[in-house]
């Protein structure tokens, strides 16, 4: 989402298909327990958010430093503006720990549960399920549950927030780690399932150790297996596979056919996600997971907590929609830190007969054979225009040019945009980090790299973390 001021948010109309409760209320979680209605109003005013009518602080289910609040606003546009601004906003607890607020439309009061328009609701506008039959509108798939959660715990959440109780609950086996599990919840009516989806999406729970888990909820896939057996007997939910994937399941060899498909390059994806988790994210941002042809996880280099992926689609329209929806979407990494996804249209595969770029030879195990100890062979670094050179500090001392090239791939910038790299001499031998000058083929690439590299976390040999510092390099001194 592009940066907008508070005033711009207030003027932003409610998006088409966005469902705000009749009383214009927003459910806000991860709120520091010391917040009162007055301090919450002052906090919102500092962000340029106005129009709050009341705030109801909810009773906490478990002890902890944060709680939840139902906030009412004067009209739907103000509610949407507040939710857009508050969702993901960092707050500092009294313990000094940082958390990120979670904001979503509040569930209707229990005594007057409003029906959900399943074709336009923001919680399920990614697929017209009634026409495709790909999803079961009576069932929800709930992921990232603490492994000790029971049916009683899930029913308690439903009762607390006014959602109708599920008619049946099936707890699925935990993940390999044993820390979280999934569940299938079935409801009597589609309205009850839709209202439960609104309550459970992004809901935060604590496990026995006090660690927080953010639930992932979506409609369960309606998948029938040979012999008429369905998900309710197998305990499995699957996304329908496009024809291309179904064909590949019977073919041999690598994923060569998908390399020519239009693709989205996404960086900062949590490293612990599998393909199903990626598809869940697509559903959360309003995309149709079924339109995704394939997911390709790229080899990780130095980023321990995140990974880069290629999302294959059959057409450019889907690619452009995915780039717009995923860019800036906030995710939580395995270490608990939050990160915003970076998405762009992936470059087409390079031809094997393409000529080598300046400074990039064809020899060497890493594919950058001309990168010698003193830099690239093609001219002095100072010959490049100053606007194309970046000075990057806090680079781990054990890193070489190949490491920096790989880092560009990690953050979503093609290595071919790099013209030269010069590792600068260390001023202090005992320091664990150094600096480098990186030149790019044009000014646009340099500006793009500046935004991608600035404050990028990197890990040192001892496991500690630093953040890269990048700026445009000073022009070369005249001799």
TrEMBL record:
InterPro entries: Nucleotide-bd_a/b_plait_sf, RBD_domain_sf
The UniProt record lists the keyword Glycosyltransferase: no
Keywords: RNA-binding
Highest rank taxon of the organism: Eukaryota
GO molecular function, one term: RNA binding
The protein's name in its UniProt record: RRM domain-containing protein
